């Protein structure tokens, strides 16, 4: 039997000191062999990320301490106990022997350095490559993770890329030096299903060809079924179950593992059901009751021919030389009390469309009518008032929260800004919002860095709900949440929709979640809606080739049905950049059925 590349033996990690000490990881033990993928799963805050950060010895920079245990890494020159290694040794190991894909791509990339600088630094340090060789290798890495126009992306900064593209850059950096151990902390959270399938296939290929060990941290049980050899289930810092992936899915022993698997939304579960339906929660044996659709729905949001460009500047004088066509002639209607989901590849224009509706970016043309008021015609004062009716949950929860403000102040801020509450009433409303998103009231005085990624996203959701808006644009609102918390938040959104008549523009790449929560679905590709219609029509009778590609790429939560062994062949994504003389054709649609429209190929 092959010796493990890394072995964790009774790892124990604490935060704080004295009476305020919190034990985040309690006596965790497991190993990973060459060419093996071990998936670590569990709730947000269960200790998954703390375990991985301990292997990199980064946990100490966040206030944690490794108080017990051994972390043995096998290197070509012998074994190293990472728990006792000095700073110089760890500097040589990080990025070379151990690569890590961090959970939040925006905060793990340096905002002041170009993508090229961040990709080539490790190559030059660890492999001794020249500047030209490192650049060539960086270009090849961007092509491997399927980033369009890689030559141009090398010169860009992180803020110029979409969330999914930033995540692919982080993946490229982690795999640059072909490490012996790859730690992947939620690596596909921000990726659509087609890119996710290719990234998982790439990791699988590297694992086979180079004997790389993979520690894969995720809350997506469908991804676990597709990539794992063994599964480690964690709960409140403890390992509650460990075993081969087939055994965990077919015959889970721990109650917590059973609850995790029960909360997974599966594609096809909503076939034949007329309305969105809550997910079954842990410990709740009642049958979920579907939302009753409105008899005569009224439009709340009408988007007509919305177009948004981003200028591309170049040359020594930074002249306007081209445009990125992010949103191209998009039209749809969202009814009161309903959910319209926007799905598509990373970089297709989903987030830009949502931001354009709120005028967080200014559209080039079109109209956005919210409750009979044209958002694009409002002056700054009227737009501020109108924004009380439309709120947004952003994709990156850490970047959307102020690191210097306590969480209670951040959730209270919109209530103060609009004069909706003060004094004890304000305090009570903020506490009630924390209750609604299932966060302990003791977290009210915490700062964002003291929470896990999933907990930060729940704070962002609470803040969006604070002013009782009519429309919430949820940009990947549940992508950072583990399956049990995701189920709670999705049920909460549907409960609020039923009680308050809220409407959601739900931007997501998780097709199983979209099928569960949506009344209507719009599929975007290269800035255009290529297919739009009722939920059942899109999932049960997809007409556009791209829609069918998306649905084929959805991972299945069954280890016996793996898609990674077959070669995945997706067509390269064309560039959305065009010169200033380019005039796109208008979007024209064929009607397949009432409300079900498909883009004509010549558009």
Automatic annotation (TrEMBL):
Q: Which controlled-vocabulary keywords does the entry list?
A: ATP-binding, Cell membrane, Membrane, Nucleotide-binding, Transport
Q: Where is the ABC transporter domain?
A: 6-261, 312-551
InterPro entries the UniProt entry points to: AAA+_ATPase, ABC_Ni/Peptide_Import, ABC_transporter-like_ATP-bd, ABC_transporter-like_CS, Oligopep_ABC_C, P-loop_NTPase
Q: Major place of localization?
A: membrane
A Gene Ontology term for the protein's cellular component: plasma membrane
- Record's signal peptide: none
Q: Which domain of life is it from?
A: Bacteria
Location in the cell reads: Cell inner membrane
Key word Oxidoreductase present: no
| Pfam families in the cross-refs | ABC_tran, oligo_HPY
**Membrane topology per the record?**
Peripheral membrane protein
The Gene Ontology terms for molecular function here are: ATP binding; ATP hydrolysis activity
What SUPFAM superfamilies has UniProt attached to this entry?
A: P-loop containing nucleoside triphosphate hydrolases (SSF52540)
GO biological process terms, alphabetically, are: peptide transport; transmembrane transport
Q: Does the keyword Transport apply?
A: yes
Family as reported in the entry's similarity comment? Belongs to the ABC transporter superfamily.
Record protein name field: Peptide/nickel transport system ATP-binding protein/glutathione transport system ATP-binding protein
Give the source lineage, highest ranks first: Bacteria, Pseudomonadati, Pseudomonadota, Alphaproteobacteria, Rhodobacterales
């Amino acid at each position: 039997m092959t010796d493990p590349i890394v072995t964790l033996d009774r790892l124990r990690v604490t935060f704080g000191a004295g009476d305020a000490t919190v034990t985040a990881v309690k006596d965790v033990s497991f190993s990973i062999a060459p060419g093996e993928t071990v998936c670590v799963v569990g709730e947000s805050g269960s200790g998954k990320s703390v375990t991985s950060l301990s292997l990199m010895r980064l946990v100490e920079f966040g206030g944690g301490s490794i108080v017990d245990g051994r972390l043995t890494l096998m290197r070509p020159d012998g074994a190293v106990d990472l728990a006792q290694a000095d700073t110089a040794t760890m500097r040589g190991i990080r990025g070379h022997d151990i690569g890590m894909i961090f959970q939040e791509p925006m905060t793990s990339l340096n905002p002041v350095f170009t993508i090229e600088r961040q990709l080539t630094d490790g190559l030059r340090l660890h492999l001794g490559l020249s500047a030209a060789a490192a650049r060539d290798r960086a270009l090849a890495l961007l092509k491997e993770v399927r980033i369009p126009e890689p030559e141009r992306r090398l010169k860009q900064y992180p803020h110029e890329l979409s969330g999914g593209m930033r995540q692919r850059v982080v993946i490229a950096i982690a795999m640059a030096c072909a490490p012996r151990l790859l730690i992947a902390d939620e690596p596909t959270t921000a990726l659509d299903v087609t890119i996710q399938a290719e990234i998982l296939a790439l990791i699988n290929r590297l694992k086979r060809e180079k004997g790389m060990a993979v520690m894969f941290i995720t809350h997506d049980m469908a991804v676990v079924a597709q990539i794992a050899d063994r599964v480690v289930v964690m709960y409140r810092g403890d390992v509650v179950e460990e075993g081969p992936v087939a055994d965990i899915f077919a015959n889970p022993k721990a109650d917590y593992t059973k609850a995790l698997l029960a909360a997974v939304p599966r594609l096809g579960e909503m076939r034949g059901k007329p309305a969105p339906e809550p997910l079954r929660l842990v410990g709740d044996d009642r049958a979920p009751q579907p939302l009753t659709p409105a008899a005569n729905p009224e439009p709340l949001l009408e988007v007509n021919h919305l177009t948004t460009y981003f200028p591309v500047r170049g040359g020594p004088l930074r002249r306007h030389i081209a445009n990125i066509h992010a949103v191209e002639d998009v039209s749809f209607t969202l009814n009161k009390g309903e959910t319209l989901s926007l799905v598509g590849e990373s970089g297709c224009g989903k987030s830009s469309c949502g931001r354009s509706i709120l005028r967080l970016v200014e559209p080039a043309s079109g109209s956005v009518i919210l409750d009979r008021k044209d958002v694009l015609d409002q002056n700054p004062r009227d737009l501020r008032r109108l924004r009380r009716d439309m709120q947004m949950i952003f994709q990156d929860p850490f970047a959307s929260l102020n690191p210097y403000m306590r969480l209670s102040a951040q959730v209270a801020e919109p209530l103060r800004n609009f004069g909706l509450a003060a004094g004890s009433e304000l305090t009570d409303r903020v506490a009630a919002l924390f209750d609604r998103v299932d966060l302990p009231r003791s977290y009210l005085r915490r700062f964002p860095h003291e929470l896990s990624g999933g907990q930060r996203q729940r704070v962002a959701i609470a803040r969006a709900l604070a002013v009782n808006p009519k429309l919430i644009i949820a940009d990947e609102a549940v992508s950072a949440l583990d399956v049990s918390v995701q189920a709670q938040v999705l049920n909460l959104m549907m409960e609020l929709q039923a009680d308050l008549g809220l409407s959601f523009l739900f931007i997501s790449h998780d097709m199983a979640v979209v099928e569960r929560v949506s009344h209507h679905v719009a599929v975007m590709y290269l800035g255009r809606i290529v297919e739009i219609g009722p939920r059942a029509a899109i999932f049960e009778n997809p007409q556009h080739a791209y829609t069918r590609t998306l649905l084929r790429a959805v991972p299945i939560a069954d280890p016996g049905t793996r898609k990674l062994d077959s070669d995945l062949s997706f067509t390269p994504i064309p560039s959305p950049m065009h010169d200033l003389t380019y005039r796109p054709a208008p979007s024209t649609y064929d009607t397949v059925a009432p409300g079900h429209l498909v883009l004509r190929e010549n558009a």
